[in-house]
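hi got a favour to ask and not much time before my train. below you get a single protein, a line of residues and a line of whole numbers that encode the local backbone shape. could you go over both lines and see whether the tokens make sense for that sequence. a few lines back from you is plenty, here it is:
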Amino acid sequence: MKYKRILLKLSGEALMGNKGFGIDQERLMEYAKEIKAAYDAGCQVAIVIGGGNIFRGIQAEKGGMDRVHGDYMGMLATVINSMAIQAALEGLGVQTRLQSAIKMEQICEPFIRRKAVRHLEKGRVVIFGAGSGNPYFTTDSAAALRAIEIEAEVILKGTRVDGIYTADPEKDKSATKYDQISYDEVYSKGLEVMDLTAFTLCKENNLPIIVFDMNKKGNLQQLLNGEAVGTLVVA
């Protein structure tokens, strides 16, 4: 196995599947089975998931809501998704722990770095909810921060696209895919991989990012086996 400890970043929108809102149970179980396969192979897995399928703070701001208020609502949405992933994994027999950047003792632990690392070492999947606990920071930034804190070897960003392209492949059919690209090239070409805060954190800490299609069965396992899947971002 190429990677022993990973941080898997999932988008909330991906959980919608073919629905327009909320959580598609079929998609949820597909993801849970992919994560279980990595877990069964002995990989230490941490997860950060967005909340865009339920609520997006930045969209609420456009509607007149205070940005800070909206961002906190978005953090709570990520906890709902985290609980859904947790329930799906535990239904498959995977041991998990959910840690939140906002205290809510009845449903999850507070985020404590040493405890998170210990859970991983004991073979539990750790899910980080509520982003970083701060407004104005996305779940991409939370994923980068948590990955660095737990000393993950790589961030695997699961999307509905199979990598990074020269342009949006859903809009430009002539767009071509990069197999590997440097941080500096991503900056200079203005490519959207993560938000700038998250991306800078990864660059400064020399943390590789792999963008891949999470919806294709077996992709996650192939990545862990060292196969060329998606696009690798390195120094």
User: Anything to note?
Assistant: The helical segments are 25-40, 57-62, 67-91, 113-121, 139-149, 183-189, 196-204, 219-224.
